[in-house]
Each structure stands twice: as structure tokens, then as C-alpha cells.
Amino acid sequence: PIFDTVHKFSMHWSKEIKHASDRIYYFGYTGQSSQLVDVFCINITNRTVRTVATGLYRSQNDYHHNMISLGGYMYFIMHTPQHGNELYRDNGTTLEQLTDLRVGSESGVYGGHNIMYAFKGKIFFAGYDSIDRVILYQYDPLSKSVSSINNPWTQASYYPSHFAEYHGKLFFSCADTVHGTELYVYDGINPPYLAADVMQGKASSEPHHLTIFKNDLYFAGLSSVWQIELYRYNDSALIVPTFPSGVMKTAQDQLYNITIYPNPSSQDAYLDMELNEAQNLLIRVSDINGRIVHTLDSKLYSQGKHTISLPLANMPAGTYFYSIFDKNAGQLSGGQIIKR
Fold it and tell me: Staple partner for 251: which of 10, 48, 237, 278, CB 3.0–4.6 Å?
């Protein structure tokens, strides 16, 4: 064996093995109790094993997980009786507690899988706010500060999870009271906004297993017939499966070169698009609360380029979303428009 000291892995935690610099971290237990979890750090260089934290409470709902390596540190969430679930980091010698979102024994960081991600040099995670909503937070290692991301929904939690970086933006699954659980995106500056409303209305597609392959974002999600299907997102065009075969229908085969300008806009905005073939399309603009503010009724558009005016000049400043639907009410494309 490489090391004289061997620690027994809990079968539940053995998959949580990550490395930072020359160190390997894992959650396990030494056999004293299957209910008390320890965090171990193996230094590959000097061949030593260090116990980072010991005697951590383990339960069905309070997971120690989501380990992320960034800047030589290992970031992870763990649960203690004193603080509940919180964010920690370790540099190989020192363990630091980074958050205490709800002072005392109540958990501040949301307990669940796939709720933490490194994006643009910061750690993003799901946590509770002062009125017990689960929202998106970021930890900035440079300023050593924790802050919440601008939450566009004021009435409910939106449980961000299943993160993936795509085209320089952070995509994730989250819920609101208007759209259900759908695919959202955060550009690092503006509030998160809806990327694709797969299941129209309050029904949820529950996007998960977000994966980048070549130039596309793939994810699994529920369909209108309540089956889990494969979806693909590319350049703000959602590719929706056909039924019942589940074979993907490619929006780029019909609709491409979509541009919104000016964006942001203080007056009307314009949508440029190009069609490979003639087809009936319906175009809709909604506000951040899901209220439809403008509709271009379904009409036949010829093959080729089209420029469509979106009357935003008299609309209040804010975030709006455009959606393009085919004759079967399937969404072919959508995106964000900022009105100043």
C-alpha cells in the first residue's frame, strides 16, 4: 500500500473524492460510528494523512458533499451541531468556516446535491436568506466576502442547482412561482433570467445533468407528456424532442442567425432571424413575472431573412424575454432583452 494508515470509506461517501494541488480529500469514517463522518486530507508529496474535521453529524438530509477545488483550496459543505450546513475551505493545514448564513445551529447552506459551482473565480452555492428562501449566493476568495445574487423573484425560493458553465455564463436549474423549475442563466452581472421555459406555465421540466459537448449544452428534463427527454441548448435556441419517439428536433434546421438589437435598448428592439424554409411562427414578449406584454400572432414567414419590430419604447425599464414558437406551440428559441 502507498500509506501505512488506511481509513475505511463509508460506501455512501466514497464517491466524494477530489484533489486540490497535491492533496486528496474525501469524506469517510474510521469505524467508530456510521453516523459520524470525518473529513480526511491525503498529502501525496509527504505521504501523510490528516484529519481535517471529525465527528461531523450525518443524516439523510444533511449531506457533506459538493467538494470544489479553487486556487489551491478545497471548498466543501459540511454539517456540525453548532452551525448546521455551512461552507468551509481547507488549504492543507488550516480549516476555515466561510459562512454562517443563519446564526446558530440552523443550516445556512441548503442541503442537497449539485448545489455548488466554481464560476469566474468565485464559489456559487444555494443558501437560505433572512426569510428562509433558498437563493443563489457567491463567495469571493479575493475579498473573502459572501453576498447574495440579485433575486428577480420576491415571493418564493428558487432552489438553484445543477450548474454548468456554457459560453461564459452560468446555467442552472431553478424554480419560480410563474414558470416552475426551468433552465436559467446568470451572466455574472445582471440578475438571473429564464433561458428556456420547456414546460409552459407553472409546470416544471426540472432540468438536470447539465453537460457541455462541443458547442452545445445538453440536459435531461421532463416533457409535456411527463417523460424524461434529452434537450439541447445552443446560442439561445432550444432544441425540443418530438414525441413519442424522443428523437431531437433541431431548431437550427429551421431557424438560425437570431439577433436582438439594440440590447439593452431605450426604445423599440428588433429581432433578426433567418429561416431555412417557410413556416408559421408566433412571437411573444413577456416581462420578468411571466406576464405577456406583446404577441405577434402566428403567421407564415417565408424562407430567408426577416426583421421584426418589438415595441418596447413605452414599456417600463426592466428585463423582458422573447419566445418564438412553431405552429405546434413548441418553443424554438428565446432570450433576454434589457429595457433601459
Answer: 237
